[in-house]
Q: What sequence folds into this?
């Protein structure tokens, strides 16, 4: 039986395909979900598919990058996967788990804004998304009545989508498989 490292489709490894497809699903289905009203069943399904893609791709990148010495990249993607899981802890409409998830987006996206190994567009949009998610999270924690479907959150997700498209490009070109330092 072949190991995952031995299974290749042309020059693409299974790991690389998981990363590309996972982040592409995250970006496309997340964006598509934003087109439906909050609480809509179709929106919840699209967001769930998006989250599953992000979690699978993030964990795969983390597993690839840690042995290569790219601890910052690995940690950022691990925390991003954790944030996505926490978002769903209370179900698709739970405000508390949503706020907790956005709270974990902040360090994840800041960490992903640091490594020179990642595309500059992803690094910049990650940091900007972290700022917007930070504004939302701290406002909610401070007792402000901020909507999880408001402009700040939508802006954060738009920037996160751009970052994910950059990660798709990075993995597509083989960046996820390169042995480069984290910063």
A:
């Amino acid at each position: 039986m072949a190991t995952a490292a031995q299974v290749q489709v042309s020059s693409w490894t299974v790991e690389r395909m998981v990363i590309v497809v996972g982040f592409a699903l995250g970006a496309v289905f997340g964006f598509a979900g934003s087109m439906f009203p909050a609480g809509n069943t179709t929106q919840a399904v699209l967001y769930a598919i998006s989250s599953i893609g992000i979690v699978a791709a993030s964990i795969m990148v983390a597993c690839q990058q840690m042995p290569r010495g790219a601890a910052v990249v690995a940690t950022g993607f691990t925390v991003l996967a954790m944030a996505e899981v926490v978002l769903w802890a209370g179900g698709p409409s739970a405000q508390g788990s949503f706020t907790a998830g956005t709270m974990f987006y902040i360090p994840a996206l800041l960490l992903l804004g640091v490594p020179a190994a990642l595309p500059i567009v992803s690094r910049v949009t990650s940091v900007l998304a972290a700022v917007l998610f930070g504004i939302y999270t701290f406002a909610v924690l401070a007792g402000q009545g901020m909507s999880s479907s408001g402009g700040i959150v939508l802006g954060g997700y738009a920037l996160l989508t751009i970052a994910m498209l950059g990660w798709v490009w990075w993995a597509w070109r083989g960046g996820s498989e390169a042995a480069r330092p984290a910063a």
Remarks:
- The first strand starts at residue 8 and ends at 9.
- The chain has six helices and two strands.
- Residues 147 and 153 are 8 Å apart (CA to CA).
